[in-house]
Amino acid sequence: MGLLALGTALEWPEAKKKADQVRQWGIEQLLANWRRAKGKERDALLWGDEVEYLVVALDDAAKKSRLSLAQAEILKSLARDEALWKSGTSKGNENGEHDGEEPPHFHPEFGRFMLEATPGQPWGIGFKDLLKVESNMKWRREVASAHMAPNEVPITLTTFPRLGTKDDYIQPYYPPSGPALRSQFVPDEIANPHIRFPTLAANIRSRRGRKVELNVPVFHDINTPRPFKDPTVDYDLHNWPEDDDVRNGAAKEDHVYMDAMAFGMGSCCLQITFQAKNMTEGRRLYDQLSPLGPILLALTAATPIYKGFLVDTDVRWNQIGNAVDDRTREELGEAPLKNDRWRIPKSRYASNSTYISQDPRLRKEYFDPDLVVDEDIKKRLMDGGMDDLLATHFAHLFIRDPLVIFSEDLEELDLNKGDHFENLQSTNWQHMRFKPPPPDKDDIGWRVEFRSMEIQITDFENAAFSIFIVLITRAILSFDLNFYIPIQRTTENMETAHARNAIHDRKFWFRKDPFSRRIPRSAQQSTNGSTFSSTTSSAVNTPPPSPPLGPVDSEFDLMTISDIVNGCADGTFPGLIPLVESYLNSVNVDVETRCFLASYLDLIRKRADGTLWTGARWIREFVAKHPSYKQDSVVSEEITYDLVKAVEEMTIKEGKHGSVGWELLRGKKTK
Amino acid sequence: MKLILSSSNLMHGGRQSVIRQPLTQKSNVELINSLRSNFLAWQQIESANTNGNGHSNGSRPPASSWTHQGEDALYIPAIDFSQPGLAEERDQYDITVKLFYLPGIPASRRCAHTREAIDLVLKELHVKSIDLLIVSFPGILFDADDDSEEEDNEASNGEPDDFDSTVQTWRVLESLHEQGMIAQLGVAEFGSERLARFLPHTKVKPSVDQINLKDCCVVPKSLILYAKQEQIQLLTHNDCNDILPVGTTRELLGPSEKGAGILASSPDADDGIKGDVEPQWVVKYTAVVKDRGVVENKGYFASADVGTCVKDRS
């Protein structure tokens, strides 16, 4: 999560004064880096996954599970081992299973109860590499586990069901209501103590002018009170000015109310980053993967509980968006614009809002006409030589203020660094991220990050979804697929993906025909007058389709997730899985790999068609069937403990032979 | 008369290769669809050019306008080999070619057929060599469910390829390998028994045995072990065995709405080129950018004889 430099972090009133300077310097750094790296060519496909864990401490005697705030100790212990591995005095694993693999890397996250783990080295497209992903994920879990207390486990639930309740859900316990978060539910100690994190939280709150506000609709079960008034909200606190928020109506009826960054940024995600062969390919992948964001969000849905209540949404996304929403009332449109520069329709954490590929298939109708852009920054970028599309993208990201500024960094502008650029770039948490090569590392190319997926309970699932996305990128490039839809439809899809059971109950906008029109080569030459190059990446070489284009609205339609993943019965959209399989049929895949890949694709196919449950559905059913559940939406400490135990068992047995979780992993009790 | 059918690069506009069907189904749909759609695209361009309005007026342009009568064969459609083949340098690619010898065609023709097929691929891709040539012999069917090997199944699928001609064909491939034209050789659908019988007769061992992926998780253990021991890689495919039957060929090239309007509807009819049609071989080529896993070029060539000059099979 971003850079962890040390220094003197400015509080918001000071930081605000320096915002223009940081933006300007960031743009100069971007331009310098873009000039240096725009011609980078022929980088290999390298990719990496990021898996995030909650660290949970189990008290079997009391049947209680709590979040452990032991991140720092665990990371310190892990770092010691990593140093030993590097010096060669200790082997990463005893049984030789991971010979030749670099030991995994572990990173701090916002939540002090979280860990992030990445493979020790990036993956390639070699099919043998794909086979290693799942075992490497399992290895990461083992390594992490080995550095925890005996009663602690790393689990991959997106959120801890009882974060922010009245009970002692953290260990060690701290009472809520500290100066940084000013939350009535969680203490400041819930966040990573590195100065960056409390500053980030405090400056978001400060810039916003009140606490962040998360209202998630409660799931109304038969005994849930109507109207539901979140019983955990305290209206009589007077520690901080922000305690007035709830008296001013921050907590909505029929909603579970939360008031701190930890409720969002404390969620675990599954993120995949790809290295493209050059900037052109990176921009193309950014655009083509963008419409898939909401689809994969709905497919991976795993977040049905907040603060001890079943909610009526299945995914984490908007909660994170609200948890880091630093927009003022003016920017939100709740007050007339006086001091701020513009109304901003989305949080810094939201679906992406513009396309960046110089692709003849990208029609102007696909853009959002109301995209907010800093015109001065766009002009500076274009004066510096950047093209309109890319300049627009960055000038859109740079409408935001930098949130964490270290005064030491403002002394001199270093064009060989990217720190000021990253300050804005890494606090724009859109569902796609386009990453320029780091200025100080020649061996890293242009990259694209796919950020919408929810973490899954088992490593089998996490490997399946990671590899699925990798294979989709290969199919996109090989078949020259076109998934463009107007970007506002993707924004809409992102909202749709939140609904309970959206995966089966809702439809999503999707492009009907992903194929480009086929034009024989010599015909291309004669109609185009230029020599055709069969390069797969350079969209500028593809001639415009000769017949006039139809209306944009006829290009896409509402489809079910199953149609999108498995193909429409009427043959309009072929389906992501059949596309991936056609790709696999065109390359040499050995029998063992194909068998693995088949099991991954099968999981996704069956998630989409309903044969297998989503994590969200499984958790809901687990709660509903629990003997102590009272049909009142309350997920008690006891249920949470049993859920965590079940999840822990599932990560090991993976639903085999009718063990817990077979409904979302196997579909049959006997398999 | 010889016909050379070509699909050109089917990756762009690749609808014809994406088939919504159970994974287990083997198929020649990709071949047929890609040929048909290439013919159609050429006809449309031709009629658009003639009409000048960018739209076809519905009538089929004369075959001579979009095919090419070469010295040796009629090219359907006309191929312009002066077009560049691959975007990047040769060493960036893995080029795999699979050659299907068709049932009922005498093994004695395979030497010439192999040269002919490989030459077309080399010309199309503008390369001097290929990395892997997999050959598919007619009548050999691998059945993963049946650990007793493939022999039993052959009777029901026409005559099995006789062993001597398989070995003779391999000699041809070995010589191409020696000339540096092919880096590695492979076979398709060989079970462990057949491999064991075959290997002692080879100078250049097959590096690959490609088997149908019907259910790749149940490959017989004997084959896995034997392949490992002999350092033969087991790869998967989903091509069907009789990839271009006579009937399909006539339908593809015939005068019906879905046909190309080249051949007559039956050997004696007057609505196209008269005579019997006999598909000779099919070749599939794939160029994959190695370290990016991108399939840049994939296509088929097929050859058929037509007319009264169809060679005697004896």
Automatic annotation (TrEMBL), chain A:
Q: Which Pfam families match?
A: GCS
Which top EC class is given? ligase
Q: Which organism is it from?
A: Penicillium arizonense
**What Gene3D superfamilies would the database entry show?**
1.10.8.960, 3.30.590.50
Q: Name one GO molecular function term.
A: glutamate-cysteine ligase activity
- Family from the record: Belongs to the glutamate--cysteine ligase type 3 family.
Spell out the SUPFAM superfamilies in the cross-references.
Glutamine synthetase/guanido kinase
Could you confirm whether the keyword Nucleotide-binding appears in this record?
A: yes
Please tell me whether the keyword Nucleotidyltransferase is annotated for this protein: no
Show the ranges annotated as biased composition (Low complexity).
526-538
Q: Where is this region: Disordered?
A: 520-551
Catalytic activities: L-cysteine + L-glutamate + ATP = gamma-L-glutamyl-L-cysteine + ADP + phosphate + H(+)
State any GO BP term from the record: glutathione biosynthetic process
The EC number(s) this enzyme carries: 6.3.2.2
Official protein name in the record: Glutamate--cysteine ligase
Q: Please state the pathway this protein functions in, per its UniProt record.
A: Sulfur metabolism; glutathione biosynthesis; glutathione from L-cysteine and L-glutamate: step 1/2
Q: Which domain of life is it from?
A: Eukaryota
Alphabetical keyword list: ATP-binding, Glutathione biosynthesis, Ligase, Nucleotide-binding
For this record, the Gene Ontology CC terms, alphabetical, are: glutamate-cysteine ligase complex
Automatic annotation (TrEMBL), chain B:
Q: Which GO terms describe its biological process?
A: glutathione biosynthetic process
Q: Please name the InterPro entries in this protein's record.
A: Gclm (IPR032963), NAD(P)_OxRdtase_dom_sf (IPR036812), NADP_OxRdtase_dom (IPR023210)
Q: Give any Gene Ontology cellular component.
A: glutamate-cysteine ligase complex
Report which superkingdom the organism of origin falls in: Eukaryota
> Which key words are in the record?
Glutathione biosynthesis, Oxidoreductase
Q: Give a GO molecular function annotation for the protein.
A: glutamate-cysteine ligase catalytic subunit binding
Which intervals of the chain are annotated as region Disordered?
145-164
Tell me which stretches of the chain form a coiled coil: none
Determine if Oxidoreductase is one of this entry's keywords. yes
Determine if Oxidoreductase is one of this entry's keywords. yes
**NADP-dependent oxidoreductase domain boundaries:** 88-235
Q: Name its pathway.
A: Sulfur metabolism; glutathione biosynthesis; glutathione from L-cysteine and L-glutamate: step 1/2
Assembly, per entry: Heterodimer of a catalytic heavy chain and a regulatory light chain.
Family designation: Belongs to the aldo/keto reductase family. Glutamate--cysteine ligase light chain subfamily.
Q: What is this protein called?
A: GCS light chain
| Species of the source | Penicillium arizonense
Species classification: Eukaryota, Fungi, Dikarya, Ascomycota, Pezizomycotina
